């Protein structure tokens, strides 16, 4: 099973008051020489697949990923739309503080996760194949 969606949206504050600027993923995507893991709920011991493609577009960070087990629990919950949130693990390399929170300008992305409750509410899977 493959999925596509947005793991991050630009210029929208998340529940932790972080706002990601366009271009924040540019460096890490260019430097990445291996596929990003797709985790279940940010748990490294629960890798459920691999990110085949990650790219910035005008809206945010769009990802396409493949689940390892198309009949497993994650795939079942995703197919029933019981879980459809996307998120990513990262380290902020460059950011600035503002009265409304941090503005992230350069991010080291470490992984993408299928999650129940993404910090950016609209970061969701939008297509299953």
Number of domains: 1
Morphology: globular
Element-level helix/strand string = EEHEEEHEEE
- CATH fold label: Serine Protease, Human Cytomegalovirus Protease, Chain A
**CATH-defined architecture:** Alpha-Beta Barrel
The pLDDT mean sits at 96
CATH class: Alpha Beta
DSSP strand (E) fraction? over 45%
Helix content: 10-25%
Which regions contain 5 or more consecutive residues with pLDDT less than 50? none
Strands, count: 8
Tell me the radius of gyration: 14 Å
Helices, by number, come to 2
Based on helices, strands and strand pairing, what is the structural class?
mainly beta
The CATH homologous superfamily name equals Herpesvirus/Caudovirus protease domain
What separation lies between the terminal Cα atoms?
6 Å
Largest sheet: 8 strands, mixed
Description of the structure:
- The termini are close together.
- By secondary structure, the chain is mostly beta strands.
- The relative contact order is 0.32.
- Strands 1, 2, 3, 4, 5, 6, 7 and 8 form an eight-stranded mixed β-sheet that branches.
- Strand 6 (85-98) and strand 7 form a beta hairpin.
- It is globular, with a radius of gyration of 14 Å.
- The protein has a single domain (2-124), classed as Herpesvirus/Caudovirus protease domain (Serine Protease, Human Cytomegalovirus Protease, Chain A, Alpha-Beta Barrel).
- Helices cover 10% and strands 55% of the residues.
Task: Tell me briefly what this model is.
By secondary structure, the protein is mainly beta. It is built from two helices and eight strands; from the N terminus they run ββαβββαβββ. Strands 1, 2, 3, 4, 5, 6, 7 and 8 form an eight-stranded mixed beta sheet that branches.
